Amino acid sequence: MNAMTQDLDAIPKLNTNGGTSLQALSDWVAEVAALTQPDAIHWCDGSDAESAELIAQMEADGTLIPLNSETHPNSWLHRSHPDDVARVEHLTFVCTSDQDDAGPNNHWMAPADGHAKMDGLFDGCMRGRTMYVIPYCMGPIESPLSRCGVEITDSPYVVANMRLMTRMGAPALERIEREGRFVRGLHSIGELDPNRRFIMHFPEELTIKSYGSGYGGNALLGKKCHALRIASHQARQEGWLAEHMLILGIENPQGQTHYIAAAFPSACGKTNLAMLIPPEGYREAGWKVWTVGDDICWMRPGADGRLYAINPEAGFFGVAPGTSAKSNPNALKCVQRNTIFTNVGVTADNQPWWEGIDDDQQPAVDWRGEPYEAGKRPAAHPNARFTVSARQCPSYSSEAENPAGVPISAIVFGGRRASLVPLVFEARDWTHGVLVGAAMGSETTAAATGQVGVMRRDPMAMKPFCGYNFADYFSHWLSFDNGQNKLPKIFHVNWFRKGADGKFLWPGFGDNLRVLEWMVGRVEGRANAVDTPIGAIPSEADLNLEGVELSDDARAVLFGYDRDGWKAEFDSIGEYLEEYGPRMPEALKDERVRIASELG
Ligand code: GTP
Ligand code: SPV
Ligand code: MN
C-alpha cells in the first residue's frame, strides 16, 4: 500500500459502493480519490437501475432536460457550457519521453511536466462531487481484438454517454480483472474554464488525463483518447491498426457482402456513409448496406492474411445538423428514442430540432436555451450531437458483434476538397495507397474549435488522433505489405467537389453507393477505369449513373484530372512529407517522386 491509499483509508466518511479484486485498479482508484477528494465513489455496474438513478439525478439538477416523451421517449437534451462544444486540438497533448516520438503532428509535453500540470488541476477538484469509476471494453467483450479501460470521472453525463458508447460495467470489469491490464483515463469537468482545460495522453503508461471539458471527444475517454490516440500506439507495438474509419457491409443482389473501411476527417461524412440507404433502383435490385461502425475501426491481419476489423464502439456520437429523412433516414430512426441530444434546439412541443432536419417544425428555443431568433444564431450548434446505442440502427450489421471482426475488401480515404480532387480514384498498390492516405487534405469543420473551411493536411483523417509521430505511423502502415498479407485495395473519394456557383457537384449520400459499387467491381476484377499518374479513375461509363443528373461541367471534373493542378499538389505533398525529416520512410518519398515525375 502506498501513502495515498493510507490517506484514503483515513477518510471514514467516504461512501463507496463497490470495488475490485484487481489490486492495480483498486490502488489507482484510491490514489485518484486521495488527489481529487470526492465526497463519494461510485463503481459503475452498467445496470438499468444505476442508469435510472443517474438520469433522475441529472433531471433534477438540469443536466438533462427530458424531451417530448410521446415523440421521443426516454430521450434528453443536454446544453453544454457555450465554450465547451467541440474538441480542443490546441489543448490536446501527447506526452512521450522523447519529443520525436510524438512527432510534429502532436503538441508535446514531457511526461513529468504533463503529470505535474494535470495533477495540479485535479488536486481537490472533486470535492463535493461523486467520483464515478467506469470499467469499459472497447469492442465486443469476447473479442480478442478488443481492449479495456477504466475511466474515472466526476460527470454523470459522461457516465450516461459511456453507457451508450461502450460496453460498460460488470462484464467489462470481469474482463479487466481476468486480463489485469487496462488503459487508465482520469477526467474531471473542473470549472469548464477554457483556460484551465487540457487533454493529455501518456501512451507509454497507457494513461489519459483530461480536465476542464465535458464535450464528447474530450471527455468520453474511451473514444478518441483511448480508441485512437492510445490504441494507435498499442497497435503499432502489437501489429495492428487503430483508425478513424467507419466500417460498412455492401451486399449485392446475390447475397455476397464486401466490407469497406473509410477514413474521412471529422464531420466529413462517416456516419452518413456507414448508414447509407441505396438509391431506389439499387434497392429494387436487392442491394443492401449494413452498418458495422461509424467512427473508429480496429483491424489486424487474420490467419488468411486479410485484414479483420471490429468497431470498438457500441454507439454513435453523431453530428445532428444536416441529418434528415432524406440525407440519413437510418440515423433519424436511431434517434427517435433512448437518445441523448447535446446542444440541439427544441420546438414549442419540446422535440429536438436542428438545421437541415427538413421537417415542418420550427425551433422555439436555441441550443443556448434562449428563444430562437432567426439570424441571431443557429437553433442547433453546428457541432450538436446525438448519442445513441448502435443496436437501434435499422441497418446495424448482424456481423457487427462478431468477435472475429469482418474481412475488409477496400479501404477508402476522403476529405472535403472543393477543387482539384475527382469523385474517386484507385491507388495502384499498397504503397501508393499509403501515400494517398498520407497526402489527404480536407477543409476544417465545426467538430474542433478554430476556423472552419481551411484546407489542411489530415493524413488518414488521423491528424488530431494519431498518438505518435506520423512518419512512424506511415512506416507502420507500409509494414503490412509483407508479401504474406492479402491487403485490401485502397481508394480515394471526394463527395465535396464544388462548381463555380459554390454548390456541391455530386449529389452524395445514398448516391455514394454508385461509387462503392464501382469499388466492389474493381475488387472483383470486373469494373473498368482509366490509368492516370494519380491512380485509376473511372470514366462516366464505368459507374452506374442512371437517374443522376449531372451537368457536362460536373461530369468533366468529377471524372477527370487536372495535370497542372496535380503537379502543384504533389509539390505541396513533397513539402509536407519533408516536415517530418529523416524519420519519413524513403519508400513513401520515392512513391511521391515516382508520381510527380509521371505528372511531368
Ligand atoms: P464525426 O462524427 O465528426 O467524425 O463526423 P462524420 O465523418 O461521421 O460526418 P457526418 O456523417 O456526421 O457528416 C457531417 C456533415 O457532412 C453533415 O452535415 C452531413 O450532412 C454532411 N455530409 C455527409 N455525407 C455527405 C455527402 O455525401 N455529400 C455532402 N454534400 N455532404 C455530406
Ligand atoms: C470527431 O470529432 O471526429 C468525432 C466527435 O467523432 S468526437 O467524439 O468529439 O471526437
Ligand atoms: Mn470522428
Give the SSE map:
Elements: H1 3-9, E1 15-16, H2 23-36, E2 40-43, H3 48-61, E3 65-66, E4 76-78, E5 92-94, H4 99-102, E6 107-108, H5 111-122, E7 130-138, E8 147-153, H6 156-165, E9 167-168, H7 170-179, E10 183-188, E11 198-202, E12 207-211, H8 216-219, H9 222-238, E13 241-243, E14 246-251, E15 257-263, H10 270-274, H11 280-285, E16 288-293, E17 297-301, E18 307-310, E19 315-319, H12 329-334, E20 340-342, E21 345-347, E22 352-353, E23 363-365, E24 385-389, E25 406-414, E26 424-426, H13 430-438, E27 441-443, E28 455-457, H14 470-479, E29 489-493, H15 512-523, E30 530-532, E31 535-537, H16 552-558, H17 563-578, H18 586-599
Parallel strand pairs: 1-2, 2-7, 4-20, 5-6, 5-11, 8-10, 10-12, 15-25, 25-29
Antiparallel strand pairs: 3-4, 7-8, 7-9, 11-12, 13-17, 14-15, 14-16, 17-18, 18-25, 19-24, 20-24, 21-22, 21-23, 26-29, 27-28, 30-31
Helix pairs in contact: 1-2, 3-6, 13-18, 17-18
The chain binds guanosine-5'-triphosphate, sulfopyruvate and manganese (II) ion (MN).
EC number: 4.1.1.32
Cofactor: Mn(2+)
InterPro entries: PEP_carboxykin_GTP_CS, PEP_carboxykinase_C, PEP_carboxykinase_GTP, PEP_carboxykinase_GTP_C, PEP_carboxykinase_GTP_N, PEP_carboxykinase_N
The overall number of domains is 3
Give the ligands present: guanosine-5'-triphosphate, sulfopyruvate, manganese (II) ion
Name of the CATH architecture of the largest domain: Alpha-Beta Complex
What name does CATH use for the topology of the largest domain?
Phosphoenolpyruvate Carboxykinase, domain 3
Alpha plus pi helix count: 18
Major sheet size, sense and barrel closure: 10 strands, mixed
Radius of gyration: 24 Å
Bin the helical content. 25-40%
The number of strands is 31
Helical/strand content category: alpha/beta
First CA to last CA: what distance?
A: 68 Å
Assess the beta-strand content as a share of residues. 15-25%
